[in-house]
């Protein structure tokens, strides 16, 4: 075993001063230009013979299997950690973990991480012209790129799978890709398929071509295959209360145009185009886009059953969320997660935190939906039974569930109040058009008056 007190580079580190017998595990240099950067060494790494090495325990075995799966030789990978030492604790703790406070204060822990990074990791980053850096875990992502968010959470950016620059080596370009740490994956198992995708993810995004302010000149002539996405004022509530702002359309992946929904010319063109669409790609379209468009007067030539090439005028709907539910039932089904799994595009769902216009965001939603839908459709087509289940059961069932959620009360107990108010308003508006003899009228009713107190009942 190695100890921090014997490492000249650890001089001045508060962790070394507080725990001179903390175990030290140096980086392990590989033959190639791939660098795996984890969090901190575990017990197996500390006791590895003849010398300590990163990722030789269970997490290392998991990582090695991942590299084998994508055709990367283990000896070609350089392995290191954000923190090169292990606290003398019963379980493995990263210095900034809350459970590590009994061993080191938070300011001292942050200073120890900074010292270790500057002393060991930065020189390693600058020692080679790395071809790819795998950031394993949130600490590696945050320290390496300054980004936070490696797990998908609603309303928060998830940077896993996105090509990023290293803060201390920007000259290398966007060659860093973050993913979950193997230890986390072994505990939960939820994101293992995405882990393999992140390791093999291309560093070169597909080229994009989008028109932000579409005009009639940008209407596609051949709409037999179309992808579509809406930007609205809200994603909740009755469809009649949802206002469309933008509509993005495209006829191939990563290309398209965004149109202002208030443009009467576009709405008229879209209604005509829908009668010519054979294959429509949408994300969660059955539950959102399609009902909202129908509420705004767009009529769809639904065709749930035809598996071959449909006759002219019949449309097949390829809903990426529904298809993904069938193929990957245990994974997240939001569009950002699907983009991470099926495309090489950088994260685009956090557009509100950037200077990107909403029109570009709308275009990217539809362009990525098209690319994802084509791949999901191909996967479904390899499983005829799943394809039949999607066409004959899932699409109609999604439609039924939509109507139940719009009219039912089980999902939201307050729904009955809203439903009653809406029904009463509809009754009031309808009654104004009824003939006079059918309208409601106020009728005087005689109620039985109770007997005065003390009255003796005749039945006694």
UniProtKB/TrEMBL annotation:
Pfam family, one: UDG
Protein name according to UniProt: Uracil-DNA glycosylase-like domain-containing protein
Taxonomic classification: unclassified sequences, metagenomes, ecological metagenomes
GO molecular function: nucleic acid binding
InterPro entries hit by this protein: RNaseH-like_sf (IPR012337), RNaseH_sf (IPR036397), Uracil-DNA_glycosylase-like (IPR005122), Uracil-DNA_glycosylase-like_sf (IPR036895)
Residue stretches making up the Uracil-DNA glycosylase-like domain: 36-189
Transmembrane segments: none
């Amino acid at each position: 075993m190695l100890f921090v007190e014997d490492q000249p580079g650890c001089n001045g580190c508060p962790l070394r001063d507080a725990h001179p017998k903390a175990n030290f595990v140096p980086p392990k240099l590989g033959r190639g230009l791939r660098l795996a950067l984890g969090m901190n060494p575990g017990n197996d790494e500390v006791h590895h013979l003849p010398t300590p090495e990163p990722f030789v325990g269970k997490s290392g075995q998991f990582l090695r299997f991942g590299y084998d799966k994508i055709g990367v030789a283990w000896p070609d990978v350089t392995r290191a950690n954000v923190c090169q030492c292990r606290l003398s604790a019963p379980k493995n703790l990263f210095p900034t973990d809350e459970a590590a406070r009994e061993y080191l204060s938070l300011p001292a822990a942050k200073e120890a991480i900074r010292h270790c990074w500057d002393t060991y990791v930065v020189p390693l980053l600058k020692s080679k012209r790395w071809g790819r850096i795998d950031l394993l875990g949130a600490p590696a992502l945050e320290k390496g790129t300054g980004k936070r968010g490696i797990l998908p959470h609603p309303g928060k950016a998830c940077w896993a799978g996105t090509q990023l620059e290293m803060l201390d080596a920007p000259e290398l370009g966007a060659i860093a890709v973050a993913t979950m740490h193997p230890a986390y994956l072994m505990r939960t198992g939820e994101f293992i398929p995405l882990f393999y995708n992140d390791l093999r993810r291309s560093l070169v995004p597909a080229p994009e071509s989008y028109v932000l302010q579409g005009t009639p000149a940008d209407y596609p002539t051949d709409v037999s295959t179309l992808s579509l996405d809406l930007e609205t004022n809200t994603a909740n509530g009755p469809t009649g209360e949802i206002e469309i702002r933008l509509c993005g359309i495209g006829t191939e992946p990563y290309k398209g145009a965004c149109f202002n929904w208030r443009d009467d010319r576009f709405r008229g063109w879209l209604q005509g185009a829908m009668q010519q669409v054979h294959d429509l790609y949408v994300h969660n379209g059955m539950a959102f886009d399609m009902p909202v468009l129908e509420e705004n007067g767009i009529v769809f030539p639904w065709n749930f059953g035809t598996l071959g090439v449909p006759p002219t005028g019949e449309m097949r709907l390829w809903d990426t969320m529904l298809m993904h539910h069938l193929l990957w039932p245990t994974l997240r089904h939001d569009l950002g997660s699907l983009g991470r799994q099926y495309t090489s595009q950088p994260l685009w769902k956090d557009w509100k935190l950037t200077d990107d216009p909403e029109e570009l965001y709308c275009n990217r939603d539809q362009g990525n939906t098209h690319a994802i839908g084509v791949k999901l459709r191909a996967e479904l087509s390899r499983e005829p039974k799943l394809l039949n289940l999607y066409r004959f059961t899932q699409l109609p069932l999604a439609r039924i569930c939509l109507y139940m959620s719009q009219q039912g009360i089980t999902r939201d107990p307050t729904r009955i109040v809203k439903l009653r108010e809406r029904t009463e308003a509809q009754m009031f508006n309808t009654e104004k058009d009824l003939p006079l003899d059918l309208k409601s009228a106020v009728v005087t009713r005689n109620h039985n008056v109770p007997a005065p107190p003390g009255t003796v009942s005749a039945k006694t």
